[in-house]
């Protein structure tokens, strides 16, 4: 992905899109190439404009943001989706992340933090509002009677990488923790995604948390 970030804004409120667009205009490396007020229009724009990132609202008439996220990523897997919404309920957060969103922010986010988050997501990182991260972990780390046989498909090093990935670490931080290069980390992450049958690192983290990986580690300590 180039250093120039092409964005499609998706929100059914004109004033919200205008405010975001106006702020992003001050960033030399970010360009708003299209806007949509429905999920259906967002999918059409992504297919036509092939942006690097979609800023996606959740509650819209017709196709909602979760369904639109799935459709966008099916049409163009290279495009990143960053949810920007007013809602933090559990029934909104997990479906959006499971649909493939690489981040979840609230509309109260400060402008500078939004820009940093856009750049992080386009660089391959996952971005979660702190309250969203807390809710996700609370929901996923409930006691479970689950077997960890699925881990047998991963090598020991891939398991180490997945544990750190599930804790929200970036590729660089994982490399520093395990004393391996970023290219090696990326290779392990690609192998993990293929073996778990998921599409991105966010879904891999959710899979690991849902299936009790970190919980099992805590019991060993």
TrEMBL record:
GO BP, sorted A to Z: phosphorelay signal transduction system; regulation of DNA-templated transcription
PROSITE patterns per the UniProt record, alphabetical: HTH_LUXR_1, HTH_LUXR_2, RESPONSE_REGULATORY
The keyword Oxidoreductase belongs to this UniProt entry's keyword annotation: no
Keyword Zinc: no
Taxonomy, superkingdom: Bacteria
Transmembrane segments annotated in the record for this chain: none
Domain Response regulatory: 6-122
GO molecular function: DNA binding
Name of the protein: DNA-binding response regulator
Origin species: Tumebacillus algifaecis
């Amino acid at each position: 992905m180039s250093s120039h970030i092409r964005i499609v804004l998706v929100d059914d409120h004109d004033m919200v899109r205008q405010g975001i667009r106006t702020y992003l205009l001050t960033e030399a490396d970010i360009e708003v190439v299209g806007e949509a007020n429905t999920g259906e229009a967002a999918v059409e724009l992504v297919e036509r404009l092939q942006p690097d990132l979609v800023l996606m609202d959740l509650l819209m008439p017709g196709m909602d943001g979760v369904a639109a996220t799935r459709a966008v990523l099916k049409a163009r897997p290279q495009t990143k989706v960053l949810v920007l919404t007013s809602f933090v309920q559990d029934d909104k957060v997990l479906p959006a992340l499971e649909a493939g969103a690489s981040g979840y922010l609230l509309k109260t986010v400060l402008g500078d933090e939004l820009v940093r988050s856009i750049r992080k997501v386009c660089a391959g990182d996952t971005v979660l509002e702190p309250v969203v991260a807390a809710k996700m972990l609370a929901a996923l780390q409930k006691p479970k009677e689950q077997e960890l046989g699925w881990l047998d498909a991963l090598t020991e090093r891939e398991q180490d990488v997945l544990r750190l990935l599930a804790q929200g670490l970036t590729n660089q931080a994982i490399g520093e923790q395990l004393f391996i290069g970023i290219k090696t980390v990326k290779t392990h992450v690609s192998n993990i995604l293929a073996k778990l049958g998921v599409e991105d690192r966010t879904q891999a983290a959710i899979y690991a948390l849902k299936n009790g990986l970190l919980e099992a580690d805590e019991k060993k300590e």
